[in-house]
Amino acid sequence: MSKLAVITGGNSGIGEACAWRFAREGYEVVVCGRRGEQNRGVCDRIREAGGVAHGYAVDLRDARELTECFRAIALNHPPVTCLVNSIGIEGTPFTRTEEYDDTVFDDVLATNVKAPWQCMKAVLPTMRLARAGSIVNVASLAGIRASATGGSVYSASKHALVGMTRAAAREYAPFGIRINAVCPSFVRTPLSDDILGGDLESVGGTHPLNRVCEAQEVASAVYWLCSQDASFVTGIAMPVDGGTQA
């Protein structure tokens, strides 16, 4: 039976690493995101490596586009086995609460909270009928403690995503659906490079493991949470932080 993993924000960074990991594990992969050309590039490379991947260009903040996208996925692919919500933005880094722009606040919450919530709503009915499925939301260490870079708005969005994950996990556990979150700290991604630039390596030195996390390491945690090896794990916010929480 075919296994389908839908990866939102799968055209770069952690999402792209997740797409590659699931493809290597034999999943058919669907990459969803606004950047259609990047989606196609990721999917082309996965197919060249022998995997099965499809890209959908969609603004997941737009409810109509999101609904149409998941309708197309349901029509053209097997039922969704795993959903990985890796969509997310930082907003305006290093900005005090009093100086934060209202429109950026709205965009951060729409991208980091509402879009994953609506993606969950899109797949949960089918998972509930199948009494199986796994969802992993890519949160952040800022969903557990204050953000070092994103400030109050980014922290609020990731705390909300963690709370939503835990509540939904309790709701859907009776149907055999597991819902978890991963909470990475500093990861080597294009977004981190944009925010921290040449400081990324030095910031990685603040981790007890004394290095920057690689996107593939987060993808491994995501895959484990979706796998049968984690069959009794639901409702957690797993730090992937090189020992920072310790």
Question: Can you put this structure into words, describing what you see?
Answer:
- With 246 residues, the chain is α/β, with parallel strands linked by helices.
- The chain has one domain (4-237): Rossmann fold.
- 46% of the residues lie in helices and 18% in strands.
- The protein contains eight helices and nine strands.
- Strands 3-2-1-4-5-6-9 form a seven-stranded parallel beta sheet, sandwiched between helices.
- Helix 5 links the parallel strand 5 (133-138) and strand 6.
- Helix 1 (13-24) crosses helix 8 (215-226), helix 3 packs parallel to helix 4 and helix 4 (102-130) packs parallel to helix 5.
- It is globular, with a radius of gyration of 17 Å.
- The N and C termini lie far apart (41 Å).
Key descriptive features of the protein:
246 residues; Rossmann fold; two-stranded parallel ribbon; alpha/beta; 18% strand; 9 strands
CATH domain class name:
Alpha Beta
Order of adjacent strands in the largest pleated sheet: 3-2-1-4-5-6-9
Query: Regarding quaternary structure, how should these chains be classified?
Result: single chain
Helix-strand category: alpha/beta
CATH level 4 superfamily: NAD(P)-binding Rossmann-like Domain
Count of structural domains: 1
Family: Belongs to the short-chain dehydrogenases/reductases (SDR) family.
GO molecular function, one term: oxidoreductase activity
Pfam families: adh_short_C2
Keywords: Oxidoreductase
